[in-house]
Design brief:
The chain has two domains: about 100 residues, no CATH class; about 120 residues, no CATH class. The longest helix is centred in the first third of the chain and has 20 residues. By secondary structure, the protein is mainly beta. The strands form four sheets. The protein has a six-stranded antiparallel sheet with strand order 15-14-13-12-11-16, with no helix packed on it. The protein is globular.
């Protein structure tokens, strides 16, 4: 007599899909060369500077970022060992280049990036305390009530939108193609959306009434797909995630635009990280 396979309910399937997604997301956060592995943030100037957690003397000017390596120092750029001097060229806004460096028995990644118009160097060491101690991120239990269908309303033309940053005095500029209008509990709401990478949908930065209580005070992020032909678009707040600044002070995360401060409590998605809960 064959065993009876129990029927999986829609709720169970929804929960399993969320758990699989969140496990993949946490694996990316805990990557040995991810943002938790950053050991310093160094703002480059025209004067060459050396830093204790990276090789070489680093500088930047109108022609881009440069490094001069001391005798015996080698980095790996595009799979090739480099010694002496190397020019990285101009790094575009929100762009970056990762190169390798062997520090004793450690494989280190050196991130050269541009944030808010400034070139920075951020070494990523796999034995950094945050990454070695990472034990996941707490989150609300997934609930289908937080999957909301809204409508994408495009602006007449994309708007350059300046927002603040986790770093005081630093600003980011994003292109906003429109906003998403939706309702929760019969309350009309709207969020300005920014363009996603490589045309892969949109993303939203927001805060809500849980911010600073159970969720990170400064921001959370939500990835959206592209709207359907009729303009409808799905917001799954169960997949609202923290930005790097929720975990480390060595981040330059953008803050939400003023209109994206929701007046309701979005009790869904990721909560304040364990590492910050005592200080939030």
């Amino acid at each position: 007599m064959s065993a009876t396979i129990p029927h999986q309910t829609d709720v169970e399937q929804f929960t399993e899909q969320w758990r699989a997604w969140h496990a993949q997301h946490e694996a990316r956060i805990g990557d040995r060369h991810g943002f938790l592995a950053i050991t310093s943030i160094n703002w480059l100037t025209e004067t060459p500077q050396r830093f204790p957690d990276a090789p070489g003397a680093w500088s930047t000017d109108a022609s881009g970022v440069h490094v001069t390596l001391a005798e015996g120092e080698t980095i790996v750029v595009d799979g090739q060992p480099v010694s002496g001097s190397h020019d990285f060229g101009v790094i575009p806004e929100r762009g970056g280049v990762n190169v390798g460096w062997r520090d004793g028995d450690k494989d280190v990644v050196l991130e050269i990036a541009n944030r808010g118009g400034f070139d920075i160097l951020r070494p990523r060491h796999p034995d950094a305390p945050l990454v070695t101690a990472y034990r996941g991120t707490p989150a609300y239990d997934p609930a289908e009530e937080w999957v909301v269908t809204g409508r994408f309303v495009p602006f007449e033309a994309p708007r350059a939108t300046e927002v603040g940053s986790a770093v005081e005095g630093l600003h980011h500029v994003y292109e906003a193609p429109g906003r998403v209008e939706f309702e929760i509990g019969d309350q009309p709401l709207a969020l300005t959306v920014f363009g996603g990478e490589h045309g892969a949908g949109y993303h939203v930065l927001f805060t809500d009434a849980t911010s600073g209580v159970t969720t990170w005070p400064a921001n959370r992020s939500l990835q959206l797909g592209l709207p359907a032909e009729d303009g409808t678009i799905v917001l799954d707040f169960n997949r609202a995630t923290n930005l790097p600044c929720a975990y480390t002070d060595l981040a330059t995360c953008p803050l939400p635009p003023a209109e994206n401060r929701l007046p309701i409590a979005v009790e869904a998605g990721e909560k304040i990280p364990y590492e910050r809960s005592a200080h939030a």
